[in-house]
Design a protein that fits this description.
Distance between the termini of chain B: 7 Å
Structural class of chain B: mainly alpha
Largest interface: A-B, 50 and 58 residues
Radius of gyration of chain A: 23 Å
Largest sheet of chain B: 2 strands, antiparallel
Strand content of chain B: under 5%
Shape of chain A: elongated
Number of helices of chain B: 14
Strand order of the largest sheet of chain B: 1-2
Number of helices of chain A: 12
Chains: A mainly alpha (282), B mainly alpha (304), C alpha/beta (509)
Number of strands of chain B: 2
Strand content of chain A: under 5%
Structural class of chain A: mainly alpha
Number of strands of chain A: 0
Order of helices and strands of chain B: HHHHEEHHHHHHHHHH
Order of helices and strands of chain A: HHHHHHHHHHHH
Helix content of chain B: over 70%
Distance between the termini of chain A: 17 Å
Radius of gyration of chain B: 23 Å
Shape of chain B: flat
Oligomer: heterotrimer
Chain lengths: 282, 304, 509
């Protein structure tokens, strides 16, 4: 007998956004993907300056207005998707890859190694992300590559801890005990039970993590530590437009909104998938 | 109890040692000569080079270099910034108060707002609106929030100064900007915690005693909901430290963030290392506070 | 006191669930009424609806609904609150989670007094102590200052009862009040409830266990799928149930011996002087155990008696501190896992919770297939345990509890083992399903001559299935022998205490 209380299924996992929100998130992600793949289809040259139309408000010709050099802000936002998102994707790939390796290592090895590794994850995870990235950039210098690696290192513990915890859960799961009853060897146990069950949730986790990576990347670029001008990176655009805030809010606020829309969409979609996944495995 | 405290102090010391060592290793890992790294973009003369070699014992064996560095750090001597031509301790020391002010104001604002949101927006559309707003806030880069607040309240309405750290008025917008994402995350965690606690059997028992829903919430559920929120205190310290770098930049406030950013851009390694060690110290303090908070909330953990 | 006609409770939400579909019941002053049913039958929801606690998304409708002579259909939250604690007290299953773990027992009991303004602030501690004394909690002053986790299971449950009776309610609603407890403690709590009843309180008992309520109840209502399928005097129901479902419950509660006439064969597994120490705790002390072919050996004990550790030692999951295990004539302890692997398939396991015993990503086909020689069709094995080919491509979570346990049996039987260790295999199942799984296990022993080590806290189940029984207490085997001999003429006082505590149907025929 479990402690069965009447608990309607809808209560526990109340969705963060109503259904239309999920649809909207899907559309935003679709647009973002399109902007990454074929930016030129949607917008012209992001670097073309037009000194005659400087800091003009949003209009039919320039949906998001123009910036201090007369460049089309919409075009720069569309082209910026490739910069901002590829930084996020690359950083997430590094973090997830390293996290899976280290997490498995901690979860599958002996207690001493596990203890050392997980203390390391804890310390790294607790350390301010931005500061960690700053430290790395201070050593490796500014630039897109070091930005990517910095964010990758800073977010690694996130995945490593999940993978380690999940590995330990699966290793102790009764179904692994049952596999022992069939004379299954350790290697086969890891391959057949541990890996699939541990890696299953990673894609969804990476999706939510991608949002976080994009957010940090924008922050560091805003500080001038990422792609240098005139690259149309969202955070860098904000930083450039900030000086003209009193004249033209659109040049900084609208690129910022692109970041927000992307991150929200990733989070909402990721959480939705996560809830479905967890519901399935309960 | 005494052993518990001793254990905390010891583990705090270990974290600090690890941070100092990691920072030192990072310095060694920097491309080029250590002397180059320490000089950074500062004036590079033979005198300065020999001064650095003397200060960091670079002519002695590596072990001595490392131990001496630890010893100096333990005594609070964080070296000298050759770029600024001043001891690091002074450079950082005078920037701590404005940052501490900002961090404390933001933390209080964020926690209070989160508590109010989680407790008051329990039902139907209010809950929905509130959780949607929290999601948007959490997903928005903090500098965008800052810029929007600036353009509305400073440029349009002229209510608050655009930059600087003079007076309380100048603290309002930065603190709100830094506190909003904290409120967003904490409110979500608290709300989830309340939902879970109100579903527990003890909540049913409490209702069956004739308690009002509000009493069940405040006397029973809230304490349970605080547990996961306390877990986030460590994260909170990270947000406050990391966030202040960006917020100070947006609002042109002096503080640790500005110093760090300048040091990073100019390759002023002694200052960067000191900031890292300082952040680790802040982390230790906040985590100790979190552990004490756990003990205060949950009697089940008090078993010695 | 309570009169309800055609009660319907529907949970609205993403999934609409009709939990209660037209229940009528009356409870008279001083009566003890029991609602019996399996999980999901709607018995708890019915009981909670009586105090307006059906849940946040519940829609409650009824033709007549009077509580204490008042029509509650138009009741506002305020009106309900005045009834709760004062007119009716609620006792839930497990005090560890039903009392707020972050508050002292005294604060929890005092809260009722405070909510209803009983007594003033200063004499509340005395009232709390008196209440604890009423439910026979020793040292009430000290206990009131403690937290639920610092009390034993029995004391905790008493404290929960004290908080339910603090407002001196006339009606006590007890929802599975003894389910989470060991048998001896269960008996004490039932005695306490009987005492309250004798003191004039009206009692509504909710349970899945007909035997438990038969001691106390005047009337029994049997619920299934949100309806009352049968109701009447306890004696009448037990003696001559009309509804097939009730008959099934009565039969399950009464128990049925599933013996064998075959003589046990050669020794399959043997444990000598087993001892297991964890840190400074000795969990298993000098346990000797022999299991022969075709034999069902019961291992009984309360939680913490060491019976599960014995199972782990036999299964080779953990090494004994001293002593040894032999299986099919070969050393099974003190050897590397590699040496055990060739005979691993001859020793199988069935656990209490079948869901966690399956990899959630595997289908039934793959789960059973793993236990069979490569390429062999899993259908015949499933047929043996009474499952059709339609479950082959389902995931464990898509099966019912009974189906899952059948799949677990199929997986254990498939490699034709000589011994199956069953660790509480039916404790998580509803009573009617329990009987089916026990039948199945008996059948498998009969057909294959497989030996079973059957571990349980439930003497009733052991009595129905095992040939021999070992009673464990504090890591020691305190008594052993043929089931009938041990259970009918228990020598050790602990065994007798266990036996006394087993709820049996009061009405014998």
């Amino acid at each position: 007998m479990s402690l069965a209380l009447p608990r309607p299924a809808s209560r526990r996992w109340s969705p963060r956004l109503p259904r239309p929100g999920l649809t909207l998130a899907g559309i935003v992600l679709g647009l973002a993907a399109a902007a990454v793949l074929w930016p030129s289809v949607f917008a012209g040259d992001p670097l073309a300056a037009d000194p005659l139309h400087v800091l003009e408000g949003p209009s039919a010709a320039h949906w998001f207005g123009t910036d201090q050099l007369g460049r089309d802000v919409f075009g720069r936002v569309v082209h910026g998707a490739r910069h901002s998102l590829s930084i996020g994707v690359a950083a997430t790939a590094i973090a997830a890859g390293a996290g899976i390796l280290l997490g498995l290592l901690a979860g599958l090895t002996h207690r001493v190694a596990d203890e050392a590794l997980s203390r390391g994850f804890d310390a790294l995870a607790a350390f301010p992300l931005v500061l960690l990235a700053l430290l790395f950039i201070a050593i490796a210098g500014t630039g897109t590559t070091s930005l990517i690696v910095a964010i990758g290192i800073a977010t690694t513990p996130h995945y490593a801890r999940v993978v380690r915890a999940q590995t330990l859960v699966v290793r102790r799961a009764p179904y692994v005990t049952h596999a022992v009853a069939f004379g299954t060897s350790r290697t086969r146990l890891v391959l057949r039970h541990v890996l699939p069950n541990v890696l299953g949730p990673i894609p969804v986790l990476a999706m939510i993590g991608l949002g976080e990576a994009v957010l940090i990347a924008a922050g560091l670029s805003f500080l001038g530590l990422g792609p240098q001008p005139p690259s149309p990176e969202w955070g860098a655009m904000l930083s450039e437009g900030r000086g003209y805030l009193h004249l033209a809010w659109w040049a900084s606020v609208l690129p910022g909104c692109a970041v927000t829309a992307t991150v929200i969409s990733l989070t909402v979609t990721g959480r939705h998938l996560q809830n479905r996944f967890e519901g399935r495995n309960q | 109890m005494i052993t518990a405290i001793a254990r905390r102090v010891a583990s705090g010391a270990i974290v600090l040692w690890a941070a100092a060592t990691a920072a030192y290793l990072a310095l060694l890992a920097a491309p080029g000569d250590i002397v180059d790294a320490i000089v950074g973009d500062g004036a590079d003369t033979p005198q300065i080079r020999s001064q650095i070699i003397a200060e960091w014992n670079l002519d002695r064996p590596a072990v001595v270099q490392y131990l001496d560095y630890l010893l100096r750090a333990a005594q609070g001597d964080l070296g000298r910034s050759y770029l600024l031509q001043r001891p690091v301790r002074d450079v950082i020391g005078e920037q701590i108060p404005p940052t501490l002010q900002l961090a404390a104001a933001a933390a209080v604002f964020g926690m209070v707002l989160a508590l109010i949101l989680a407790v008051t927006t329990r039902h139907r559309w209010v809950r929905r609106v509130s959780s949607t707003a929290e999601l948007i806030i959490v997903s928005t880069p903090p500098f965008l929030i800052g810029i929007v607040l600036l353009s509305v309240f400073s440029f349009r309405l002229g209510l608050f100064p655009v930059s600087g750290d003079r007076g309380w008025a100048a603290l309002v917008l930065p603190a709100v900007t830094l506190g909003l994402p904290i409120a967003g995350v904490l409110a979500q965690v608290l709300r989830d915690g309340l939902d879970r606690a109100l579903d527990e059997p003890f909540a049913v028992t409490a209702r069956a005693r004739g308690l009002t829903e509000r009493a069940v919430l405040t006397r029973h559920a809230l304490r349970h909901a605080l547990m996961p929120a306390v877990t986030l205190l460590g994260w909170l310290s990270g947000v406050l430290i990391g966030g202040s770098v960006i917020i100070e930049q947006v609002f042109g406030r002096p503080g640790l963030g500005q110093v760090t950013l300048q040091a990073v851009s100019n390759g002023d390694m002694p200052v960067v290392l000191a900031v890292v060690v300082l952040a680790a110290a802040a982390f230790v303090v906040i985590n100790t506070a979190a552990d004490l908070a756990y003990l205060a909330i949950d009697p089940r953990l008090r078993r010695s | 006191m309570i009169e309800v006609e055609n009660l319907r409770v529907t949970f609205t939400g993403r999934h609409r669930v009709e939990a209660v579909r037209g229940v009528s019941l009356t409870i008279g002053e001083g009566e003890c009424v029991a609602i019996v049913g399996e999980s999901g039958s709607g018995k708890s929801v019915t009981a909670r609806s009586l105090v307006g606690l059906a849940g946040p998304h519940a829609r409650v409708e009824a033709g007549t609904f009077t509580v204490d002579g008042r029509d509650v259909r138009g009741f506002a939250a305020r009106d309900w609150r005045r009834l709760r604690g004062r007119f009716a007290g609620l006792i839930l299953q497990d005090a560890l989670v039903s009392l707020d773990p972050l508050r002292t027992v005294g604060a929890e009991i005092g809260e009722v007094l405070q909510a209803h303004g009983i007594g003033d602030r200063r004499d509340r501690p005395q009232r709390v102590h008196r209440l604890l004394t009423d439910v026979h909690v020793p040292e009430p002053e000290r206990r009131a200052r403690q937290y639920p986790h610092q009390l034993s299971g029995g004391l905790r449950q008493r404290a929960l009862i004290a908080s339910a009776i603090a407002g001196a309610p006339r009606l006590l609603i007890a929802d599975e009040p003894t389910t989470a407890l060991d048998a001896t403690v269960q008996a004490q709590i039932l005695k306490l409830l009987a005492e309250r009843r004798a003191g004039g309180e009206t009692l509504l008992l909710i349970s899945h266990d007909l035997a438990v309520v038969s001691k106390l109840a005047d009337r029994v209502l049997v619920m299934k799928d949100g309806r009352i399928v049968e109701g009447g005097g306890t004696r009448t129901i037990l003696a001559g149930a009309a509804h097939p479902y009730t008959k099934e419950l009565v039969a399950a509660a009464r128990g049925r011996r599933r013996g064998t006439t075959a003589e046990p064969g050669g020794v399959v597994a043997e444990a000598t002087a087993l001892r297991k120490v964890y840190g400074d705790r000795t969990v298993v002390r000098d346990v000797d155990l022999t299991i022969r072919r075709g034999e069902i050996v019961g291992l009984v004990g309360e939680s913490g008696s060491g019976k599960t550790t014995v199972a782990q030692l036999l299964f080779g999951l953990t090494e004994p501190t001293s002593g040894r295990v032999r299986f099919e004539g070969a050393d099974f302890s003190g050897v590397p896992e590699r040496a055990r692997r060739p005979i691993r398939r001859r020793l199988q396991l069935i656990a209490q919770d079948p869901l966690s015993a399956f990899d959630p990503r595997w289908t039934v086909r793959r789960i059973v297939g793993e236990a069979l020689p490569r390429g062999e069709n899993p259908e015949p094995v499933l047929q043996r345990v009474g499952l059709g080919a339609d479950v082959l491509d389902r995931y464990p979570r898509q099966l019912s509890g009974g189906q899952r346990q059948r799949v677990a049996v199929a997986r254990a039987v498939a490699p034709r083992p000589s011994l199956i260790i069953c660790d509480e295999p039916v404790s998580a199942l509803d009573v009617s399903v329990q009987a089916q799984v026990l039948d199945l296990l008996a059948q498998i022993r009969e057909d294959d001559g497989t030996a079973l080590l059957f571990i349980s806290h439930d003497l009733g189940v052991i009595r129905d299935l095992a040939d021999r029984v070992l009673v464990m207490h504090d890591g020691r085997v305190v008594e052993q022998g043929p089931v009938k001999a041990v259970l009918d003429h228990a020598g050790h006082e602990y065994t007798r205490a266990l036996l006394d505590a087993v709820p049996t149907l009061e009405v014998s025929l």
